[in-house]
Amino acid sequence: MNTLPALRIAGVGAWLQGAPDWPSLRSVLLGERGLADTAPVKPAANILPAAERRRAPDGVRLAAEVAAQAVAMSGLDAATLPCIFASTHGELAITDYVCETLAHAPLELSPTKFHNSVLNAPAGYWTIATGCTRASSAITAHHRSFAAGLLEAAVFACAEATPVLLACCDVASTGPLAEMTRTTLAFGMALVLAPDAAAGARLTLALDAAPAAAPGPAGLALARAAGDNPANAQALLLLAALAATRSTRQALALSSGSSLEMEITP
Predict the structure, then answer these.
(1) Which of 24, 147, 184, 216 gives 227 a disulfide partner, CB atoms 3.0 to 4.6 angstroms apart?
(2) CA 67, CA 74: separation in Å to the nearest integer?
(3) Is residue 247 one of the residues assigned to a domain?
(4) Cα-based angle 259, 262, 266 (whole degrees, multiple of 5)
(5) In this predicted model, which residue has the larger pLDDT, 54 or 75?
């Protein structure tokens, strides 16, 4: 097993319909309250300029919202943070539109929607809005996208001795592709991982050349809360551990034959 140096979780952001920020989602995970019917149905994403916010697709708004929350909590400058954006399937509604348009009327394809269809669109909107010129990347590993993004962010933070922003977001799937990659709810979360922060929960990651065990009842419940998206369920597993404020060890599936061991200490 290969273990990375410990990091601190300096900032957290989260958005789920009915729990539009980390404090409200933390209360839901602790059973202190339920999802609020009066909460906004879409992320505010106020960090984006108004014109860009109007044009931005749902996944971009979601990523910008949770990333801004995490950075604000960390007290760091977004312009100085390398950033990694992870997603199971990106803007699936736009992908569905592009496929249908190419099949029936290819000359009518919207350049704006094509621009927004790429996986690194959230990274582009974010870095432009915040003036960030540090490294940015977009990652997908299907149902293991959160674990892959977390590993990428942790390795970068340790190797470069710098805080790193990680955002993992997915919107609800639609069209024929929904049969292949099912997600029933939009969900997003973000972390700022720092190698030298004085405050924040301690996170230690290790690579294990063994598959992760099948999720138990708690894991299955988190999967339902995550809109049936296994990558989002992985993210909620970490958030649930943070909410509980007790030392926790979990294994996240990284591939069919390997896992990412995660230890969280308040």
Answers:
(1) 184
(2) 11
(3) no
(4) 170
(5) 75
Q: What is the pLDDT of residue 218?
A: 60
The 10 Å Cβ neighbour count of residue 265 is 14
Highest mean pLDDT among 105-114, 193-202, 222-231: 105-114
Q: Hey, what are 8's tokens?
A: 């601190």
Which residues constitute the domain of residue 130? 2-199
Indicate the average pLDDT of the chain. Answer: 91
Domains in the chain: how many in total? Answer: 1
Instruction: Please tell me the number of Cα atoms within 13 Å of 60 on its side-chain side.
Output: 28
Residue 86 located in a structural domain: yes
Convert the pLDDT of each residue in 170-180 to its tens digit: 998 888 878 87
**CB half-sphere exposure, 119, CA atoms < 13 A:** 16
- Is residue 239 in some structural domain? no
Q: What angle do CA 173, 33, 88 make, to 5 degrees?
A: 20
Average pLDDT for 237-264: 91
Q: Distance between CA 161 and CA 157 in Å, rounded?
A: 5
The CATH number linked to 53 is 3.40.47.10
Q: Is residue 176 part of a domain?
A: yes
- Taking CA atoms, 235 is separated from 51, 136, 145, 187, in Å, by 31, 20, 9, 10
